[in-house]
Automatic annotation (TrEMBL):
<keyword id="KW-1133">Transmembrane helix</keyword>
<feature type="transmembrane region" description="Helical">
    <location>
        <begin position="55"/>
        <end position="72"/>
    </location>
</feature>
<keyword id="KW-0812">Transmembrane</keyword>
<feature type="transmembrane region" description="Helical">
    <location>
        <begin position="78"/>
        <end position="97"/>
    </location>
</feature>
<feature type="transmembrane region" description="Helical">
    <location>
        <begin position="187"/>
        <end position="208"/>
    </location>
</feature>
<feature type="transmembrane region" description="Helical">
    <location>
        <begin position="155"/>
        <end position="175"/>
    </location>
</feature>
<dbReference type="GO" id="GO:0046873">
    <property type="term" value="F:metal ion transmembrane transporter activity"/>
</dbReference>
<comment type="similarity">
    <text>Belongs to the GDT1 family.</text>
</comment>
<protein>
    <recommendedName>
        <fullName>GDT1 family protein</fullName>
    </recommendedName>
</protein>
<dbReference type="InterPro" id="IPR001727">
    <property type="entry name" value="GDT1-like"/>
</dbReference>
<keyword id="KW-0472">Membrane</keyword>
<dbReference type="Pfam" id="PF01169">
    <property type="entry name" value="GDT1"/>
</dbReference>
<dbReference type="GO" id="GO:0016020">
    <property type="term" value="C:membrane"/>
</dbReference>
Length: 209
């Protein structure tokens, strides 16, 4: 009987990279993380968002490809989901507050001291990295990377996955930038808060399905 592993693993490095890249692209396009990045890119530093996302995605891709499920599932998915829901809830509240504070600033005039200070580049970078980590840890893309790495060279699988995550992150940032130019900032903040609330509710709901 022919060994499937042997057939797949004989693919060239370019074929393995291409397969991994395509797998990640299909798994991540339109995914929850894609919309998180797009929403953040509407108002915050796009370079910080892109790099924060890529840092986390690279870490997850390497872990999934070389160590696999032993580490990916080392942290109980239940507690990851709880932490993710709390994080989304906090960011929802902050987004609603920023929308309200921004409107109050306009009413009080430009000479008044701002009610809030927008995050610095590094704060945006780490905020994005944290949000993506909790949204992606144990996600279906992790399983896909582990499956490919079991059948092919994990180095090339990781390279393809990292490239795929970079392309998805870039597209999400561009989408956020384009939409952000045509929608008032207050509406963006309210929409972001509502989206975070939906993500928090869905994450909790999935625990009991």
């Amino acid at each position: 009987m022919t060994d499937t592993r042997a057939i797949i693993s004989t693919g060239s490095p370019l074929e393995t990279i291409g397969s991994s890249l395509l797998t990640i692209f299909i798994a991540e396009i339109g995914d929850r993380t894609f919309f998180i990045i797009a929403v953040l890119a509407m108002t915050y530093s796009r370079s910080a968002i892109f790099l924060g996302n890529q840092l986390t995605m690279t870490f997850i891709a390497v872990i999934a490809a070389f160590i696999g499920g032993a580490v990916i599932y080392l942290i109980d998915p239940f507690w990851v989901a709880i932490a993710s829901s709390v994080m989304f809830l906090v960011y929802a509240i902050l987004s609603f507050y920023e929308a309200y504070a921004g409107e109050s600033e306009k009413i009080e005039g430009d000479n008044q001291e701002p009610l809030i200070s927008y995050p610095t580049w590094f704060k945006t970078f780490w905020k994005t990295a944290a949000m993506v980590f909790f949204a992606e840890w144990g996600d279906k893309s992790n399983t896909s990377i582990m499956a490919l790495a079991a059948l092919s060279n994990p180095i090339f699988v990781a390279i393809g996955a990292i490239m795929g995550f970079a392309i998805i992150g870039f597209l999400a940032v561009i989408l956020g930038k384009v939409i952000g130019k045509h929608i008032p900032e207050k509406i963006v903040k309210i929409a972001a808060g509502a989206l975070y609330l939906v993500f928090a509710a869905l994450t909790l709901a999935l625990l009991f399905i």
